[in-house]
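Entry 14. Structure prediction run on the chain below.
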Amino acid sequence: MPELPEVEVVRRGLDDHVCGRTVASAVILHPRAVRRHMAGPQDLAARMIGATITGTARRGKYLWLILDDRDALLMHLGMSGQMLVTPSDAATGPHERARFTFTDGGNDLRFDDQRTFGHVMYDEGGAVLPSAIAHIARDPLDPQFDQAAVVARIKTRRAGIKRALLDQALVSGIGNIYADEALWTAKVHGETAGSSLTKPRISAVIDAARDVMAAALAQGGTSFDSLYVDVAGSSGYFSRSLNVYGLAGHPCTRCGTRIVREQFMNRSSHLCPGCQRIR
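Output returned:
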């Protein structure tokens, strides 16, 4: 699933290509793509026509188009969602779920989603923060992120620190990839209870998450296949810089111990048993 760096790459692309443009038409090609918009596909399409995109924004793994400085078209990419800027005469793709054209006659905006886990929804009055994601916490790249408060909350938890990093109501944007990379960087095992770590140690993990996500952002995000791409359809290159995620059996670049893959909730954790021991 695209995490914070990948979503931010898409947001920046949208900001470059669709801001200032007015929607001429909106076509919803698959009802599942707008399943969270309770009024249905036709209502969402009708609301989009004539709206001018005046900005873009993101909170964690969610992003949205700001419409007329008032409303929002909220998007979540899910496992395979793609926001693509394509020529207006481009044929309908096999996984295309929605298309928006513009009054200037330039490139269209498409929402493609092979697995249909992503979605878009219209939120009236949601320009600053859509109501559907008001519970989502700020992320470490947000200038208003309160790290001291997050550290204090993690310190009270007996659960493993990786669970805290993935709790989007506590700190958003960090998914499985960057949690594993941050924990490796900080030399902390993900099952280490938050309450057993010092506040400086917890803060070091969050610093590591911020650093690794910033590095991924600089390389266009992490792509393992063709499912995550930017608005131009290009892949990110940070997969070449990963230290543990997806590298089970490879030697740790820090100590030489072989990286292991462990079951974690309904997914996996990758870590170095030499560098990351449960204290």
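The beta strands are 23-28, 53-59, 62-67, 71-76, 81-86, 96-102, 108-113, 119-123, 260-264, 267-271.
Filed with the rest of this week's runs.
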